[in-house]
Write a structure and sequence with these properties.
Helix content: 40-55%
CATH class: Alpha Beta
Organism: Allokutzneria multivorans
Number of helices: 4
Protein name: Roadblock/LAMTOR2 domain-containing protein
Length: 145
C-alpha cells in the first residue's frame, strides 16, 4: 500500500474513533457524526437508535449548508473584506441548534481539516458540559490530522 493509502486509512480509522468516543464520553449523547465538508458526505456515525439512510444523508447536506451555504459564505466574505482579511479562513466554527426535543452541536475541526463533528443530545442537556466534553474529545483525537 502506498503512503497516501495509509494516510487515508489512518484518517478513516480516526474519524470512526472520534465518532465513537464522542458517543461514549459526551453526557446524554444520542448520536454523533463526522461530515467531510469537501465532499458533503457523512464519514462516520454513532447512534443509540437506527435512522433511515435518507435522514443521515440529509444531516450531512444540512451541515454543509450550515457552514458553507451561499448566504453564510457571503456573510463571511463581507466580514473579511471589511476587516482586510485575505486568508481562506472560515469564520463560523461552532453552531448550536435547538429543536423541539434535541440539541445539535456542530463543531468545525480547528486544525484545518475540512471536517465538522455533530453531536446530538436531549434538549435538557447541560450546554456547558456538552461543549466541554466535545472539545476535550476533539482536542485529543484530531491532533494527527
Amino acid at each position: 500500500m502506498d503512503t497516501s493509502g495509509k494516510n487515508q486509512l489512518a484518517l478513516s480509522d480516526q474519524v470512526i474513533s472520534v465518532a465513537r468516543r464522542l458517543r461514549q464520553e459526551v453526557p446524554d449523547c444520542l448520536a454523533t457524526g463526522v461530515v467531510d465538508m469537501a465532499t458533503g458526505m457523512l464519514m462516520a456515525c454513532e447512534t443509540t437508535d437506527s435512522h433511515p439512510s435518507e435522514v443521515l444523508d440529509l444531516l450531512a447536506g444540512a451541515t454543509l449548508e450550515l457552514f458553507q451555504g451561499r448566504t453564510v459564505t457571503m456573510i463571511e466574505d463581507i466580514f473579511k473584506e471589511r476587516r482586510g482579511v485575505t486568508s481562506a479562513e472560515r469564520y463560523f466554527q461552532e453552531v448550536l441548534v435547538n429543536s423541539t426535543n434535541l440539541t445539535h452541536l456542530f463543531i468545525r475541526d480547528e486544525r484545518g481539516a475540512d471536517l465538522v463533528v455533530v453531536v446530538v443530545c436531549p434538549r435538557a442537556v447541560n450546554i456547558g458540559m456538552l461543549f466541554a466534553a466535545t472539545r476535550r474529545v476533539l482536542k485529543g483525537h484530531f491532533a494527527l490530522i
